Amino acid sequence: MKYRLISGIAVILTALFVFSCVPARKFEEVNALKDQCEKERTNLMSENERLTTANNEFENELSRIKANISALERDTAIKGNAYRTLTVQYDKINELYAQLLENQDRLRAGADAETQKALRMLQDTKDQLQRKEDELNALAEQLNKERANLETLRAQLEVKESEIEAKNKKVAELQSILDRQDSAMNALREKVNNALLGFQGDGLTVTMKDGKVYVSLDEKLLFKSGKWDVDPKGKEALIELAKVLATNPDVNIMIEGHTDNLAYGGSGNIADNWDLSVKRATSIVKLILANSNIDPTRLTAAGRGEHLPIDNANTTEARAKNRRTEIILTPKLDELYNIFQQ
User: Fold this and answer.
1) Are 302 and 278 in contact (CB under 8 A)?
2) Per-domain residue ranges for the chain?
3) Which of 340, 342, 244, 237 has the alpha carbon at shortest distance from 294?
4) Model confidence, pTM
């Protein structure tokens, strides 16, 4: 799905910049625009990968914070129990200390040895009580720090969960748009296929690849050898196609002319196969516009010459396959751009 997204973006960027016929003398400008689109495609792919990586990192960070919170809660419970135990011990020692004070008064009247013994016991008890009190204070301070740390981690957890939710929402929106576009393009392929069903035995095929619909027409259906005026039967097929495209305004249309690798033998303003392929593409664009109300900004004419064959064999059959016109239908990507800019 990511690959279809990036491929679609590359094609729509090409369609947005190249919106009229591309004669041979401007072909280098078309190539420059194509390179720019490829660069944008790479950037968008990198952005998609960065978002996916960031989303995974957020998920890992969320798991770590949850684990820390669980550990802190367990540790807090243990130290809370220790705190209560020390409190009970502290109360008992206080009680014993009070009893010893009472005994001290009574022992003062008794023998010196007994008095000294009681005093030592009293001092030992006081020392023990002080140690317990110090431990209790230290534990209370530690508990307060850990409670504060726990609150901080909980706040961080809320932030991370919010960020992850936003990222997941963005990914879901992208996926929803891609699914809708795939569904729309499949429906368009069916419409085109049904509209052109009567021509498919005459060198016309309708396929779908990478989220785009390809309508391929052999030279024999459209043109005489070396010419660029559309034959009547080819005109009939193109008019039927234009009817379908006119009802699908969210699709951009690229007309690509292709030739074989034999040198062009014509004359006049056409110098070579590149010129011929461009001339044929523009003839089809003009025919479509003349027979429909399609917005001209949706159409792009381009000539590939002999440089993008579908069969590299140096045979008559291979050259016949390569002499073709491809009409490439690509969904507009405005919604995707809006989400990327958020």
Assistant:
1) yes
2) 2-45+184-340, 59-176
3) 244
4) 0.52
